[in-house]
Amino acid sequence: MILAHISDLHIGQERNDGGARALRRARETVDRLNRIDGEVDAVLVTGDLADHGLPEEYATVRELLATLRFPVLVCPGNHDDRTAYLAELLQEPHEDGPVNRVHRLAGYTIAMCDSSIPRRDEGFLDDDTLTWLDKVLAETEDPALVCFHHPPVELRVPFIDGIMLQEPGRLADVLHGHDNVRAVLCGHAHTGATTTFAGAPWWWRPAWSPLWCSPSRAMT
């Protein structure tokens, strides 16, 4: 299976310099993805699709992602608003609680988990989400990917480490119970690196929006 992993679009309603840059970079990235020589099974977007969680921002995101020639799988981040995310981006009815989705393609199971906490910057996978994830992983022998927004390990950058996934050991306990987890994928840090978590490769991707910290500082 071939995937493209991107994160942290931060598409905002403002058309000031920062908002214009984010939208321009997003369009450039979509254009580059569409010019890939060959097929991509899916594009994964691990959160912060909108900058302020506003309906009009999700309308822009939806129009932008619709121009990709590949399937797009998404999960929310701390800048996303669940109500507007569901209504405007996914165009689905309102539901209470985390917005978790599972997708099966190319022989893989892909769990897109909601680690957001409304009106908070740090992340948390609540009991309902972990129970759901445990069930998703138990129901298949297919290789699985687990995707969410907040990194579950420290990056050694105080600002980011203060708003990482809280109580990551709860997630590790779930993942250790399944030998079909092939990777964990995140965003949030606006930089890229790789390590392992709960015995699985773990990748987090740079943002489309501005870089907060140098990759050389994030991992040593």
Automatic annotation (TrEMBL):
Native species: Actinophytocola algeriensis
Residues covered by the Calcineurin-like phosphoesterase domain: 3-191
Keyword Ion transport belongs to the record: no
Family: Belongs to the cyclic nucleotide phosphodiesterase class-III family.
Keywords of the record: Hydrolase, Iron, Metal-binding
Name of the protein in question: 3',5'-cyclic AMP phosphodiesterase CpdA
PANTHER family from the UniProt entry: CYCLIC NUCLEOTIDE PHOSPHODIESTERASE CBUA0032-RELATED (PTHR42988:SF2), PHOSPHOHYDROLASE (PTHR42988)
Lineage of origin: Bacteria, Bacillati, Actinomycetota, Actinomycetes, Pseudonocardiales
GO molecular function, one term: metal ion binding
